TrEMBL record:
Highest taxon of the lineage: Bacteria
Any Pfam family: CN_hydrolase
Gene3D superfamilies referenced in this protein's UniProt entry, alphabetically: Carbon-nitrogen hydrolase
Membership in a protein family: Belongs to the carbon-nitrogen hydrolase superfamily. NIT1/NIT2 family.
Keywords: Hydrolase
Domain spans labelled CN hydrolase: 1-241
Protein name: Carbon-nitrogen family hydrolase
GO molecular function: hydrolase activity
Organism lineage: Bacteria, Bacillati, Actinomycetota, Actinomycetes, Kitasatosporales
Amino acid sequence: MRVSLIQLAVDPAAESPDERRERVAGLVRAERGSDLVVLPELWTTGAFASPHFLHEAESPADGPTSRLMSAAARDAGVWLHAGSIIEQGGEDGLFNTSLVFDPSGKLVRTYRKIHLFGFDEGEAVLMTAGREPVTLALPETVIGLATCYDLRFPELFRALVDAGAETLVVPAGWPAARRAHWTLLAQARAVEDQAYVLAVGTAGTNGGVEQAGYSIAVDPWGEVLAEAGAEEEILRLDLDMERVARTRKEFPALRNRVLGVPCS
């Protein structure tokens, strides 16, 4: 399976959300030939630009990001994990919601971020947490959806694996101050769940917070297959999807789980 991980520079001072949407649609179209393209978290506004969240909230069904990403996925003929948007959820408030489009441009899955970052400020107080883990079967693999701060909570990833996930996709807006944690946790989730991890972050600065960059692809044994630098960059790589089954068969640690529901 060929994947393209698009690490975007998100700097509100450099371009407007509408300008960024148009530019990113072009980047997605240029990835024709990939099976799966992945964008970062809240790339239209920036994950730390919380004063703009309410103004930039939109509908997953027909908002500006959804319309442009749907067309880009269709034009490129790819599965597109379009990162996440600020969803206007009506009476339920705002959500940090990921969007996945199929190669026809149809929105086939959404995921509302479960673990909201910020403790007593930012996303944690401005948004509503999602409740349900989400997986999606692609022709080559089953993906499990998570977002940024979710990476720190292994129980979510166990639930995704129990639901059949073989590839864990994590768009993020991770801060540079904790970049070491980003790399460590991506590898830890891959090792403990014997799954691919595709973790895609942002570059630049938003909300006064420097972004880490360093998007990473990790195989089911914990080996780093590709890693970006600190600036905008696209990682392209081919994944051997049989490696998940081989790893789980040759080192069947998931069978030895005692707490929770064992992976069948």
